Amino acid sequence: MDRTDALREQIAGRLAAWAHHAPDASGCKLAAVGLVVADEGTGAGLRGLTGKPRGWSTRAALILTRRAAKMNRHAGQWALPGGRMDAGETPEQTVLRELHEEVGLALPLDAVLGRLDSFVTRSGYAITPVVLWAGTARELAPNPDEVASIHRIPLQEFLREDAPILEPLEGSAHPVLKMPVGQQWIAAPTAALIYQFREVCLHGRDTRVWHYEQPRFAWR
């Protein structure tokens, strides 16, 4: 068994044993996002964030996007591929559809490894995170209506000693959670889902994130 097979089995095994939390979603719009594990490849990765371009690599990475500048909500922000659930869809079906629509990645249902905890946002969404295995995923193409750029962020970047960043938020009992990436950072809710992926899937820790705050710009 090579390292990638071992990592896939580790993640699938830990998710199978994980009792994921589904909060009360009454009155919320339902959405799903994908934590997509793929080879680091030659995508944008950390270029432009650290100034260090990378060649093709079989190190594992998460696929993230930057939202298109012309979008009405959360333009330019870091995002996991995904979106609002259509009537009758499961979170897994939503993520597979959105992956194809946003980044041109067509995956079969057996690429799904499991779910993490759903997260209710200040903007009124209940987001279900679905973890998927994409292998090389060499051919990715951003949908210009939704995606400005696609990034393969090495998993090692999310294991940094300075992660997570917890910042107090005036008027809230809980801090805002951020995950550093390159010389920038990603904010909750996206950062909270990445942090739980790190804790549960990579470290095997029983870590909940539903209580973390989001910065006020993400409340809209």
Account of the 3D structure:
The protein is of the alpha+beta class and 220 residues long. It has a single domain, classed as Nucleoside Triphosphate Pyrophosphohydrolase. It has helices at 3-16, 91-103, 190-202; strands spanning 29-39, 60-67, 78-79, 82-84, 112-115, 119-120, 125-135, 147-154, 165-167, 176-181, 184-187. The strands form two sheets. Strands 1, 2, 3, 4, 5, 6, 7 and 8 form an eight-stranded mixed β-sheet that branches. The chain has a three-stranded antiparallel β-sheet with strand order 9-10-11, covered by helices on one side. Strand 6 and strand 7 (125-135) form a beta hairpin. The longest helix is centred in the N-terminal third of the chain and has 14 residues, at 3-16.
Q: What is the mean predicted local confidence, pLDDT?
A: 88
How many helix segments?
Answer: 3
- State Rg: 16 Å
Q: What level of helicity do the residues show?
A: 10-25%
CATH architecture: Alpha-Beta Complex
Report the principal-axis shape.
globular
**Beta-strand fraction estimate:** 25-35%
**What can be said about the biggest beta sheet?**
8 strands, mixed
In CATH terms, the superfamily is Nucleoside Triphosphate Pyrophosphohydrolase
Count of extended strands: 11
**Structural class, from helix and strand content?**
alpha+beta
CATH C-level label = Alpha Beta
Uncertain stretches: 47-57
Distance between the termini: 46 Å
Element string (H = helix, E = strand):
HEEEEHEEEEEEEH
CATH topology tier name? Nucleoside Triphosphate Pyrophosphohydrolase
Total domain units: 1
